[in-house]
Design brief:
heterotrimer; A: 3-stranded antiparallel β-sheet; 3 strands; about 5% strand; elongated; B: Arc Repressor Mutant, subunit A; Arc Repressor Mutant, subunit A; 2 domains; 3-stranded antiparallel β-sheet; 5 strands; about 45% helix
Chain lengths: ~260, ~180, ~180
Amino acid sequence: MDIAIPEGKNAVVQGILFEAWPTDLYVPPDALQIFLEGFEGPLDLLLYLIQNQNFDITNIPISTITTQYLKYIELIEDLHLDLAAEYLVMAATLVEIKSRSLLPISEDIKEDDPHAKLVQQLREYAKYKQAAQDLDALPRLERDLFTGLVEHPDIPRQIVPPEVSLDELLEVMQDVMRRATLFTSHQVIKEPLSVRERMSAVLEQLKQLQQIDFINLFVIEEGRAGVVVTLLAILELTKESLIKIVQPQAFAVIQVVSLETKNA
Amino acid sequence: MPELKTIIEAALFAAGKPLDVDHLVKLFIEDAVPPERKAIRNTLKELIQDYTGKGIELVQVASGYRFQTRADLTPWLKQLQPERVTRYSRVLLETIAIIAYRQPITRSEIEAIRGISVSTDMMRRLLEYNWIRVLAHRNTPGRPALYGTTRGFLNHFNLKNLNDLPALTELMIEEQIPKSDSS
Amino acid sequence: MPELKTIIEAALFAAGKPLDVDHLVKLFIEDAVPPERKAIRNTLKELIQDYTGKGIELVQVASGYRFQTRADLTPWLKQLQPERVTRYSRVLLETIAIIAYRQPITRSEIEAIRGISVSTDMMRRLLEYNWIRVLAHRNTPGRPALYGTTRGFLNHFNLKNLNDLPALTELMIEEQIPKSDSS
């Protein structure tokens, strides 16, 4: 894009820009949702719109960008995605800048120029967005660099588990849940915890034996409830392809086999 | 490509457990021309040689090769010990809580829930406390370990079994969360 | 008595965290003639030299010296921990970047730069990872906390100090931007 953009006032530039650049951008609807979720706020979205068309931050064709920005906001609303209030504030700001740019510029308005403020804000944000990427590119522990811990065999290491109360643990889990609501599927929530515990127990048994008679995984003394839990655990493990239920031949004893290959 | 020796040296250091030749072979699984077992064995011999007389030595134990500090350095290394006060962190609690509720679970699944990496050191500590154990390995590429809680964990928290923990749904209800901020 | 170098070498390997000269001095607390700090510093230099080009390197980070694997060996070492490496979310990276470059900074100042709110949860997580800390409180209504980065943050990103951070770059889309305003 080497059209010379006159410095300064957008109102002058606008007409030219409308002819020079496409005003519409088409993004397939599926991609759009993922795409919109990828933005970290109105500045990020705005920056994208500007960069995507190689506009100069200091000379944003405000009318074009406002139109596009509003179009995205509409789309987001159509898709019923949660829209942070900041997006709407930005929309208002853009509209205000646009309407101001249509008016003759008077000196006293220039004092508190929302356009200049926005440009400044965008530049500042762009700087840290880049910094975040640079930071991510640095070699870091556990991703690019690893440290080790060499044992000293003659000194028994004192391993003292930290003192933690159950309340603390539960409080933490509450937080995790709050953060991970999206991750947690319904079926997980409904699943009684005992099933997961039993899943662990079954795996533990199979670790020693590789293969167990299906019947032997059940403890009759646990009663109906216990049997159901065990059964659910076995089914869940089968679903996760951690174990396999096999019957070598008709009427033979059904066996549960670890799907874990040896030499782990 | 870096020298075979540097890769093996680094792996033995970073593994946190003894590695045998089978383990070491797997490091080169994506190489066009992986080294032969014999070359690996020779490199191990060289490394043993290289580290002779140093502060750490490469030794062969039952399950493979590992670095360990030299026995005669004990008097000085003992001084390191008091520094190793176990201070539990929120990260540790989050990790153990997720394992308790979602076992059997892999490390990357824990990371997916937490949204941040769980260090090898963290997993090692939980294993050392005997709060978690490796139950099996998932049959997916890399064969990641599946973790579950232990009896030791239950004892520590005075639980008879995991059912004594409140269900996740109860945890959710207990605090009706205003869905204000997204992270 | 074993050589000073072997003791320091072994201690750095066995500590499991970076050690600075103060830590290392303490190793010799029971010695009749403990080594001088200068001797320790020289030994560290020698060790850095000794390990150059090896699979393991001795590097200085914010909290001291630590052995770590060489960055170019990652493709092979990844096979040891085959689980997917978590990538930090952009919110997290942007927030920590702003704090790192602009500290001391309040949460609302971070929000002003990002143009969107930063969740309480995000700040708490950064505090819990020990990447940031509260430096002070601004003497304005509400006494908002001023945040800064910690040594833990620098250690994690393999940095000695904040000066090692990549330089901030102004974004230039077209070359002819008049550099009118300063930030």
